[in-house]
Amino acid sequence: MVNEVRKAAPDVFITFSYPPDTIAVTEQARLQSFNPKLMYTGVGTAFALFKQRFADNADGVLSLGGVTADSAAVQDYIARHREVVGQEPDRWASLVTYAGLQVLQQAIEQAGTLDRAQVSARIATAPPSWSFPSPSGRRPPRVDHAARPDALCARPREARRCAIVCAMFEPLVPAHAIAADSAVPFSPVYGDVYHAAAGAFAQAEHVFIAGNGLPERWRGRADFTVLETGFGLGLNFLALWRAWRADPARSERLHVVSVEAHPFTRDELASWLRDLVPGELRVQADALLAAWPPLLPGLHSLSFEQGRMRLTLAFGKAAAIVPRLSLAADAYFLDGFAPARNPEMWSDALIAALAEHAAPGATAATWASAGQVRRALAAVGFAVRKRPGFAGKRDMTVAEHPVGGACGRRVLAQRRTPGRALVVGAGVAGAGVAHALAARGWAVDVVAPDDAAHAGHAAAALTPTIDPGDSVRARLARAGAGLAHGTWRPVIAPTLADAGETAVAWRLGTVQVAPRRQLRSDEAYARWREGLSALGFPADWLRLIDAADAAELAGQPVGRGGAWLPAGLLVRPGRLQRWLLEAPGVRRVRARVARLAAGDAGWTAYDEAGRACAGGEVLVLACAGGTADLARASDIAWPLGDALQAVAGQITYLPEDLVAGLPRCVVAGDGYVLPALDGRGVAGSTYDHATQPGMPAPASAEGHARNLEHLRALLPQAAWPAHADWRGWAGWRAVLPGRLPAIGALPGAAGVFVATAYASRGLSHCALAGALIASHLSGTPAPIEADLQAAIGPGRAAGA
Ligand SMILES: Cc1cc2nc3c(=O)[nH]c(=O)nc-3n(C[C@H](O)[C@H](O)[C@H](O)COP(=O)(O)OP(=O)(O)OC[C@H]3O[C@@H](n4cnc5c(N)ncnc54)[C@H](O)[C@@H]3O)c2cc1C
Ligand SMILES: C[S@@+](CC[C@H](N)C(=O)[O-])C[C@H]1O[C@@H](n2cnc3c(N)ncnc32)[C@H](O)[C@@H]1O
């Protein structure tokens, strides 16, 4: 990013970023000697970490103001903070929060009660400046929002050209609602109710369902897609689900994509739904709660009714996430809080972004009747009408988009009626795609020789990548883990004691110890932890732990602290592969494909003897390191394939006499160690760049020694006897530069898809690739954002 910006030679460089990105951007600017006339890097600049890291280089970098840095009160606060906490406070929220809490404390003390109304009145009627110090003796600094920027800021020099870069990551802030009059949930943040007092379900029926011409409009359709702004408590969603179930002529499948900046925690959602949902929707509400994802930014695909009802929750600010969706919307439910209270949800820019996703003939409905909303809809091609509003409200708005938006039309143009699909490769990549296509009605031929290449891969781990910079790899692994948990749900067991015979995976969690490079110094380790904690992940996804916590979780002494990831899975890759390929509609063809040829009816695969062995209208190349060669032999142009490499590696089996020393969850860091399955543990894994592709991958004594080195660093206190005769398994990984996979449609080759280069993350990409390719072919909402799709697109440049 900094490279790109530097090339544009701007006078002004502004990034709005959280600490990890602020640090990364500034570091890159420093390394590249990029020194524009004016540089602004809020908000990370306001943290003590920034000054520690950049020392004198921090001078001249602009950031946001907020406090009068050289006032005696601020200096006093900083000194006391250092005394108590051992480091300086940030200049971002620390002082303001402290002052705010002082105001609250004094208002309570003066009101002599905790009664909300009386305390609020006390604050509202207080003299403009509070009398400090407070009775507790603590003197807060004066907060002056109009003050000049703080000490890190310098005067801008003359500036003309401007470059503005926005970082993607924003931690999610969960919602909290209180009961307003007549028990309607009310948001204190937005100052508005979640639904009309006359009833959420009646409102949903009148405004959103009838307002969009439903149920009639979904009749006779295979797929129907609704895009909602503001998922809130999911009451519209549940009302829609009820209407769809109740209609015998409903579409075969219903897809709902709902955008939400402040999702509720599962507990709070459950408590509201208990009160608000009528008895006949209890089952659906419970299913929603059971599938409710961890509160992580990005997309979450939930599947109900054997996949016929799909909900994609898009967690994040609508303005940031709507442009990154891929779907063709047939109906819009516009349900932000009132435009006057929440203008961001109704801005012209957001309505234009929403309209981009319209399918031709898409309709929109909202209870809002503000002129600005109507004008914004009309400006982007909607024909807008008024209708009588709900429960005595004079008007509501309905609209229709006759031509549809560019993105919506593009998604529909890719759609194909399910027919026959040809998948080359039967590893987790091919099997994952075949399973997803079969679930959408495709008859799938999966062609691969009878290969025992992965037979010895006794156990593996699905552990989401974590990264303080929240890189594309981390976002992708997060999405992949969510999709794997959803897709493999029937064969995931909660503990090792469960379903030993049939389970494919066990949700045991991962202790992810800090990687070695973060342990070079206390400062690097602290930075790593601070960076992770700045991401604001919920504890059911990531919790920072010390070595003692790690030992408690693993049931064995662990070398160091790091993070606990409850979503970590222990997986039997062979069983997973078999289970995916057993899906009805999948046919396994045993052959090595030498060449593929395109004809009128699609693609035909020819084996090494030149015999046609399988065929399909669409082709998925999922043969790991062999993918590029097969594409070349078949005259399929795939430039990125030239960069595909095969890297060998091995795992080490830890035999029965060592089982007592093994952990009860996955322990990963530099290498990993897995709990015992069938009396045998696994330590992994090596990267062997010396063995040439085409040779059998060797499991060598040297490789075992390296795995045992990993093991000793992870579990240092266990006594690992020196076995003369270690055993294990060695195999190949297919890798592209940047270690991102290639998943998606191959540009310039209609009906050809690639699913390869899964590197060391085969399990993380398996369900994701299936869901992505299946959504592309069915013209239904994509499970990951467009920028992630581009990052893993097979059409990207090798260096991208
Ligand atoms: C030592 C080691 C440890 C690992 N540990 C983990 C781990 O813990 N967690 C994790 O997520 N990942 C792990 N991986 C990575 C993971 O194994 C891979 O990412 C994954 O196996 C890739 O799956 P794939 O289907 O792309 O490739 P493969 O499993 O190699 O399958 C390729 C398929 O293509 C077929 N094929 C090839 N050429 C042709 C052709 N011409 N015609 C027909 N068929 C063809 C092959 O027969 C095979 O069926 C590990 C890898 C190694 C080597
Ligand atoms: C009226 S409520 C939606 C009620 C919901 N449709 C239901 O059926 O329960 C509005 C929702 O919009 C969300 N919201 C507000 N501003 C947002 C934004 N900028 N981006 C995404 N969601 C936002 C709020 O958090 C809230 O949940």
Automatic annotation (TrEMBL):
Domain FAD dependent oxidoreductase, chain residue ranges per copy: 421-774
E.C. number: 2.1.1.61, 1.5.-.-
InterPro entries noted in UniProt: FAD-dep_OxRdtase (IPR006076), FAD/NAD-bd_sf (IPR036188), MnmC-like_methylTransf (IPR008471), Peripla_BP_I (IPR028082), SAM-dependent_MTases_sf (IPR029063), tRNA_MAMT_biosynth_bifunc_MnmC (IPR023032), tRNA_MNMC2 (IPR047785)
Keyword Zinc-finger among record annotations: no
Catalytic activity field: 5-aminomethyl-2-thiouridine(34) in tRNA + S-adenosyl-L-methionine = 5-methylaminomethyl-2-thiouridine(34) in tRNA + S-adenosyl-L-homocysteine + H(+)
One Pfam family cited in the UniProt record for this chain: DAO
Keywords tagged on the record: Cytoplasm, FAD, Flavoprotein, Methyltransferase, Multifunctional enzyme, Oxidoreductase, S-adenosyl-L-methionine, Transferase, tRNA processing
Region named FAD-dependent cmnm(5)s(2)U34 oxidoreductase: 424-800
TM region positions: none
Subcellular location: Cytoplasm
MnmC-like methyltransferase domain sequence ranges: 284-401
Record function comment: Catalyzes the last two steps in the biosynthesis of 5-methylaminomethyl-2-thiouridine (mnm(5)s(2)U) at the wobble position (U34) in tRNA. Catalyzes the FAD-dependent demodification of cmnm(5)s(2)U34 to nm(5)s(2)U34, followed by the transfer of a methyl group from S-adenosyl-L-methionine to nm(5)s(2)U34, to form mnm(5)s(2)U34.
Similarity comment text for this entry: In the C-terminal section; belongs to the DAO family.
UniProt name for this protein: tRNA 5-methylaminomethyl-2-thiouridine biosynthesis bifunctional protein MnmC
Organism the protein comes from: Verticiella sediminum
Gene of this entry: mnmD
